[in-house]
Amino acid sequence: MKKIKVFLVDDHAIVRDGISALLMVEDEIEIAGEASDEVSVDRILSHLVPDVIIMDIALPGISGIEISKKIKTSHSSVKILILSADGCEQNVFDALSAGVNGFLLKDTGKETLIRAIKTVFRGERFFDPSISLTVLNRLIDDQQNDKTPQKLSTRETEILKFISEGLSHKQVAALLFISKRTVDTHVNNIFQKLNIHNKAGLVKYAIKNNITSV
Questions:
Q1: How far apart are CA 57 and CA 3, in angstroms?
Q2: Model pTM?
Q3: Strand partners, 30
Q4: If 82 and its partner were Cys, which of 103, 128, 196, 214 is the partner (CB 3.0–4.6 Å)?
Q5: Can you tell me the distance from the alpha carbon of 26 to that of 179, in angstroms, rounded to the nearest whole number?
Q6: What is the tally of structural domains in the chain?
C-alpha cells in the first residue's frame, strides 16, 4: 500500500517533533520532510513533491498562507492542510482563497489530524469541527462570487455590445459579415466567461462596464 507522504512546515521544532511522533506510528503515513520557513520550503520542494503539506500560518518573514499560494501555483497536485493556533474567520477565508484543502486548529486530537490528512489526500476538503458550517458556507460563497470574470476578446466585446442593445443573433451576423452560428458560439462563450446565465445579465454587465449605454 502506498504511504501518504506528509511534509511539515512550522517554525517551532518542538511542534514538528510532536506531529512527527504522532504520525510515525501510522502504517499509511510517512514523514517525507520538514521545513521552518519559506527558504527551506522552496529548497526542499525543488527535489521533493509530497502528497500532503501540514502548514502553519505564523511563519517568519511570510505567512503560511502566502507560501501555500506559491506551492499551489507550482505544485497544484499537492494537498495543503493548514494547522494553526488561530481559527479566526479571516484566516479561514484567506486559506480558502489560497486554495488550501483543509484547516485545523493546533488543539485538535490525533485521530482528527489523521482523518484530515487522509481526507485531503483523497481530494476532499476537511475543516476543524469548531469552524461552523454557516461560516464556511458564507466564506465559500463569497469566494465564488468574487471570482474575476475572464477577459472578453475584441470580437466578443463587439457582439456583447450589439446583443445588449437588443439586436438579434441574425442581425449581428449580418452587421459583422459572419454566420449566425458563429454569433451563437461567441454568445455562448461570453455567457461562460462572465458566468452569466441570461440576456438581462449581459445587459447589466455591458452597462456596468461601459460597453453600452443602453
A1: 26
A2: 0.63
A3: 5
A4: 103
A5: 63
A6: 2
